[in-house]
Amino acid sequence: MPSKRKSDLSPQTKKAEIVTSKYRKNSKKAALPTGEVEEDYEDLMDAEESVEIPTQAIPITSAPIKIITFEVYKLNNSPFDGLICKDDRKNLWCLAGREISELQQISFKRLNNNCAQILYKLKIAKPVVELFKTDDFDLELKKEGQIETYSIRVPELGEVETELGKVVTVTAFKTIRVEADDVGEWLELYGKLQGDFR
């Protein structure tokens, strides 16, 4: 019987094969055309553990910008494309942890049946990653004895690109029934997990 060839696959490719092979329907070992025997998921577990992928805990950076957009797409968990008064626009900026003194101008526009946008023009251009840590968040605004919850996206932050090897935060929105371990295995295709699921 011919001896096994040494794999010339990169560590990332090995990891991808390890994770995806778990879901193959045919779990029996089958001979390849070369006479080699295909390895099982269990056989490759040791190889996965020995693969070290270098990462750097370097903060993500972005170019300074002067206009920050708040896309208000939900109000109290209902789709929203209505109006937001001037005072509420200022209050939402402050609730997001920012100061009014940073602003030169505030404007507002509605997108057709999609969402409302508040445009904040800064006095001094700043990187959006220094202003906000997440591109999607909820803000609770107290009005006339009630609490209104605005769901907001910051598209400029969502468009920031990261460089290979940098540590990034990943937010997974639950749309189907899936376990945290499955999400973790999928994310490991793209790099080493650091930290815990919340």
- The helix content is 10-25%
Question: What is the helix tally?
Answer: 6
SSE ordering: HHEEHEEHEEHH
How many domains, as an integer? 2
Largest sheet: 6 strands, antiparallel
- Shape field: globular
Strand content: 25-35%
The average pLDDT is 74
Structural class: alpha+beta
Number of strands: 6
Low-confidence stretches: 22-28
Tell me the Rg in angstroms: 24 Å
End-to-end CA span: 50 Å
Overview of this protein structure:
With 198 residues, this protein is an alpha+beta fold. It folds into two domains: 40-60 and 162-198, no CATH class; 64-158. It contains six helices and six strands, in the order ααββαββαββαα. The protein has helices at residues 11-21, 41-50, 86-95, 128-131, 155-158, 180-187, and strands spanning 64-75, 78-79, 103-111, 115-127, 136-143, 146-153. Strands 1, 2, 3, 4, 5 and 6 form a six-stranded antiparallel sheet that branches. The longest helix is centred in the first third of the chain and has 11 residues, at 11-21. The termini are far apart. The model is unreliable at 22-28 (pLDDT under 50).
Topology of this structure?
Layout: H1 11-21, H2 41-50, E1 64-75, E2 78-79, H3 86-95, E3 103-111, E4 115-127, H4 128-131, E5 136-143, E6 146-153, H5 155-158, H6 180-187
Helix pairs in contact: 1-2
Notable characteristics:
single chain, 6 helices, 198 residues, six-stranded antiparallel sheet, 24% helix
Give a nutshell description of this structure:
By secondary structure, the protein is of the alpha+beta class. It is 24% helix and 26% strand. Helix 1 (11-21) packs antiparallel against helix 2.
